[in-house]
Amino acid sequence: MSETQPSRILIVGAGSMGVIVGYFLTQANAQVTFLIRPHHIKDLDRPQTLYCYDDNSLKHFEGYKFITDPSHMGDEHYDYVVITLDASSLQNSVGKALVESIGATFRDSSSKVVLGSVAIGIRKWFLEVSGLKPEQVATGLISIHAYPTDRAVLEVHAPTNPALIAQADLAFTDRMGAGFILLDTALDVANGFAELYNQCRVSTAAVVPELDTTTKVDSLLAVMAACELVNWPSFSDLSQYEELWSITTAAVKEICALAIHGEPGRRAAESTTEKSLASSMKEWQKNMLSFDLQGFNRFHHGAKVNRQDRLHLRTCISLGEAEGKPMSALKELLERVEAHEQS
Description:
four-stranded mixed β-sheet; transmembrane; KPR_N
């Protein structure tokens, strides 16, 4: 990319993830445009203030543009279209119409798409609805944890500065290694986007094997379901609920062993124990400090994407049953969660 012609990026969705990704891309000298719904204009018609847990400072995000009408997506050329909507929003009737518009706009262009929505089979569905070519669409996961400060209040741990958080529109932490994980589908797209993103030098992108990543992500939602049942305790305390943890571990193993996860999933299912799963969760929480990980999970998985998580677990059950597996632990876990929600 020449310095005189910066990359142009269209980000579909301007929630927490979209804004944070946009911020890092502008640090890579990209020109960022958001596609948003009209009622979100009030959120983006001024520079954004971001609190970073990693260095306890405020970041200022400005210089972006936004459009509200999908028919204007073709008004200029975009090198990448980055979709940051959650899968539930992307696959409802409004989202499906948007995907059709994305396909009609970019099908015959050189623009590349990074699909950041997470769900089993989401890429196949996206390709079918959009009509885009498989080599044009890479899938990715955003491992940065970000939240709107006016909707979530997390426990403060030193050296976090609550006075600065109060000044911010969003707060975030980028402590998971790569902030943007690209799966090894459509490698040219994944590698090209990672190269661009890494020019920001304050966050990193990495291209990783698809099955290794989806095995971990898909099975993690069983742990989130267990956390909801006991009101999101510290991961250090979760394994003390012995019967629940036993069921949760069995459910994780059932998800890992699904055929869609291939050999990496089979190995994960064989090696996972109650002790190893508890240890990995504790290590995750420890590495995220001073960020309140379970407070974030309560907000995100317990409320924001709750419906999507439930659908995900039901899909895992259906896939397992189609393979002739009883999926008894995951069924038990999901039944408890749904009963808990109704109580």
